[in-house]
Amino acid sequence: MPNYNINMLSQNLLFQNMSRSEIERVLFYLKPKTRYIKKGSYITMMGDSAKEIHLLLEGCVQIILEDAHGTRSIMSQYLPGDSFMEMLTATNTKTIPASALAVKDSVVASVYYENILKMSVHSEKIWAKILNNLYTLTANKNIILYSHLGHVSRPNIRGKIISYLQEQKDKAGKNEFLIPMSKGDMADYLFINRSAMTRELAAMKKEKLINFEGRKFTLTAKD
Length: 223
What we know:
The protein is 40% helix and 23% strand. By secondary structure, it is α+β, with helices and mostly antiparallel strands.
């Protein structure tokens, strides 16, 4: 089994309240399948079977929806230490309704949900922790989903942008902050046409509501 960054994995809610030795035991019994994914490649695609939970060890992954015309919407983005697709494995969903795309060279460890269910044979204590952590993880993902819906449900482009930037400002705890994705991806995440968002950002900058350079933003509008 590959050497895993236990300190990083311990930050993931899946391994919350577990000692290093417990995490090592979990990895031993779950037998993760590690893959090295090139930037621009898919980890999973819409229509694949929903059987695995994926742990991001390196890189950056986005969950995306694409239609027949190539229009892309970003549903969420994950960084090292995060997991994804876990909400689907415990449902009756047989196929994945979205795709997972590596936007940087990435390393992903995948485990079968069925292997988690079988862990009770080896250690009921660790198994109970894993199930509780999966519940917490799913609840947190729902909170993130509600936040996303809060942004995209704003009635106009400016409202969506301000809502998203305010969230990033609150996370940073200061007016100047870095958004976690490119402005093009930000448009896809907010379900905005990229050209329309570029025009709106320029207008907001001219009105001195915001300032930005690359991914660095300063939000000067009143809360």
